[in-house]
Structures are given as structure tokens and as C-alpha cells.
């Protein structure tokens, strides 16, 4: 496909952008694949490929097909244009079952005939015929096709007609006085080809069978029907393949178009346009809003709530406070507080970087989301999809919605992983706390020393011997000062530090909240935001491609 498109681009002559259009159509259909109806996408792809292929083939030849109902005189017209009896004309209908090609100027036509799928036995080289007449120079470069009828009961005929109509550069539709108003041709072929009116001619054949005075009114009637098909630009000619009347005009009309060398490109452009328009009908033309910051924040909040971020943040604050108080409080009361459980241990969030790998514990023990939390997540995800998909056509709105939820089954695991991989920073206490702990221990030693000293003094183990002098400060004995001072200062220092510890705990809670939310935001982006944006990007790519294809 790409090779074909490249070849096509190379071949597109300067000033024409058909190659770009084909490429743009290919881009649009690639982006639409899996999102729009497969048939529309396949059709666009097939068109891009076919057009690219045709563009890469001999530019010197123009394919002209003669199509119409059975008995309208296609084969007779074909013969009249060729100037020789080439195609069989019969009384019993239908006569032509396989397309026959007459080629004026053989050089380089082989590939084109292969592309058209015309077997060699159905090819006639006009050059090889002996009686070369004036008409031959006029139709130089033409590959004239006599098609089977489109209205017989033979299914193979329809298929052959439909196939070749697609590959033809110029279409000559032959009508006859009896059946020119048949719905079969107008509804099934002419009206749907309104996009291709610049590469069509209509012929009212058997004109010799119409009384002279009725001919004009019949032609007017044909004109009216053709206009109603949306083919206002298409010329209508009157011919008689039997008497030869009007055949020269038809030949001239064909030759003019072929000489202008535009007809192939015009046809291919019409094909690209038609395919692009069909794709655009399916995809719609409206723009879309971008995802708003508020929506994303609301989604992240719901995720954070479901992940138990508030629980963890609370636990970090409580644990920091407990651990800080233990470190900075009076050691005796700290020991007593060891009896209370550590909230982070309970949530299995205190394992540190390598801890979870070491213990083989894959999950935290943060409680699973409640139904209410889960419902909030679902509602926020839906709002995200709704916000951007509201103006989109149905298939795109659907694909945005489904992209927003396809990865949600991973949500619990991903949130848990985000939680357990986030550094909580609760192990180390700040430097000042270490200093305070040292002071507390010194105070405790002083207290114990004071206690022992006082006990010794009270026990009075000297038995009458001169007891040593007990030092004092301002009348207070040092042992008592040590004992009371150690306890009082220790307790006081512990109390003072509570404020600092609380501030630290709050700041760590805030840091934790920030880190967890950033981890959660990555999860929200990967699971919901990015997939939704990918759909919007595909939608934009389709619209952009189609706009360029239709420019
Ligand atoms: N009077 C008259 N008869 C014609 C004219 N064109 C064709 N015929 C006759 O109409 C009959 C059918 O003509 P064909 O050329 O075989 O028609 P066709 O469209 O090729 O028919 P199929 O191959 O069956 O689809 C033949 O008997 C022709 O001689 C015409 O302009 N005037
Ligand atoms: Mg025929």
C-alpha cells in the first residue's frame, strides 16, 4: 500500500495534488480503523489503493466503458466507434457476457489491461486491424470497453459491470427509447454516480426508431431525468448505432475528453472525494473540547479516595507523631507508649524500599475501595468521557467511552502499586530529634544518679563514721536537684517537643499527600486520560486527513 502510494506520488504531475489526497485518505482510514464501521474504512482503503494503482499505470491510455441495459445497443455502439464489427450483436438477449476491449495504440497498455482484468482473448488491437480509417487517430490512446448489461438476471453480469465501472476513466451510458426511465439504471447507477458527472456521457441510442417529431421531446425527457439524478453537467447525445447517426458526435465528444488528458485524474479525484465523503458522513465534522484540568483533578481525587490516600496520609501523620514523641519524650513515658500499635505497620506501609521485596508481600493492607468509592470512580470516568465526546458522532463517542473504561480492571492493582512504591519518608526523624533524645538520656542518667545518690544518703550506710559532705546549690542538695531536675526537665522538654513533633507530622503528611497524589495522577493518566486522548487524536487525524483529501 505504502509502496503504491509512493509510486503514485512520484507519478503525480506537477501542479496536481492527487498523490497527497490519496495519502491523506489512507491516513484517515488508518486512524478510523477499528473505530468506524469496518465497511466504510475498507472501502476508503480499497479506493486509496485502487486510485494509487491506476495512477501508477500508463498515463497515455484512457479507459472508456460503454454501459447500459440489455439491448440498448452497447455492442453496436462499440462496433460503430471502432468502425468494424468486433463485438457480437445478437437478437437474443443478453448477448455480451464478458467485457471486450478495443485498444487504439498498443504500446504500454498491457499493464492497464491486466489491471482491468481483460483476458487477452477479449482484447482487440485496433492497430492490428487492416482498415485504418480517420477515426483511428481521433481515438488514439483509448481503451474502449463493451460491457455486459447491468439489468439481466445473470449475476455475473452485474458483478462484471460493477467491477469495471469502478476502474473506468470515462463512462458512456447507453439508454434506449423503451427503457430510458428504468429505475434500475437511475437508482442503482446514475444517481449514486453524481459525484462523477465530469467523467460521464449519456447516449440515447435507437434514435432512428423514434419519429423525428418526437425526438426532441424525448431527449428533453431524458435530460430532465438525468438532471434529477444530479447529473446536470452530463451531456446527452442522440445516436443510432444502426444508421450511424450521431456516432461521429459521440466519437468527437469522447476524443475531446481523452485529448484533454484530464479525464483519468478527474475520475480518480472523484473516487477519492466520494470515499472521503462517505467516511466523513460516518465520522462527522464537529470539533471537540479538550479535557479540562478540573475534570482530570476530579478524576484523580476519586482515584486517590479509592486508593485510600486519606487513610495513608492520616497514618503517616499519626505514626510520625508517635515516633517523634517516643524519640523526644521523657524516656520513661516513651517506653510506656510502645504498647500502642504503629498505624503504618498495621497498613504494611512501613517496609521501605526493599522491604516489600524482602518479605514477598505484594500488596499493602490499605482497605480495598468501598462501593461508594468505586461508584465515584465510575462516575468520574464517565464524566471524563462525556466531557469530550458530547459533540462527537455516535461511533466516536462510543469509542471514547470504551477507551475510558477498558483499562479500569487494572485499577485496584495499579493504585496499590502506586501506594506501595511511594517513598513515605517516615523512618528517619529530623536531626533535632536526635539531639533531644541525647539530652533526654543525659537527663535520665542524671535522674537515676540523683535517685541512687539520694537512696544512699537515706540508707545512711556510714554507721557513725563521718558521712561525706553532700554538695548543694543555693541550699538544695545536689542529689535532690539531680533527681527532681532530671524528671521535671525531661517531662518539660518532652512537652515542648510535642509542638515541634506535631508540626513535623503535619508537614510529612502534606508531603506524603503530594507524593501519593502525583503517583495516583500517573495512574489516572495511564488508565483513563491517555486512552481518551488517543481516541481524540485519532478523531483529529481522521478529520484532518479527510479535510486534506477533500480540499
Ligand atoms: N434500430 C436500431 N437498432 C439497434 C440500434 N443499436 C442496436 N440495435 C439493435 O439492437 C439489438 C441489440 O443490440 P446490441 O448492440 O447487441 O445491444 P447490447 O446493448 O450490446 O446488448 P447486450 O449485449 O445483450 O447487453 C441488435 O439487434 C442491434 O442490431 C440502433 O441504434 N437502432
Ligand atoms: Mg452487447
How does this model look, in words?
The chain is an alpha/beta fold and 551 residues long. 60% of the residues lie in helices and 7% in strands. It is built from 21 helices and nine strands. It has helices at residues 2-11, 18-32, 38-55, 74-82, 110-116, 135-138, 155-167, 183-190, 212-228, 247-259, 263-283, 293-307, 309-328, 331-337, 343-346, 352-359, 371-389, 394-405, 411-421, 431-459, 478-549; strands at residues 62-68, 100-103, 123-125, 142-146, 170-175, 200-204, 236-238, 472-473, 476-477. The strands form two sheets. Strands 3-2-4-1-5-6-7 form a seven-stranded mixed beta sheet, sandwiched between helices. Strands 8-9 form a two-stranded antiparallel ribbon. α8 (183-190) links the parallel β5 and β6. The radius of gyration is 45 Å and the shape is rod-shaped. Residues 351-362 have low confidence and may be disordered.
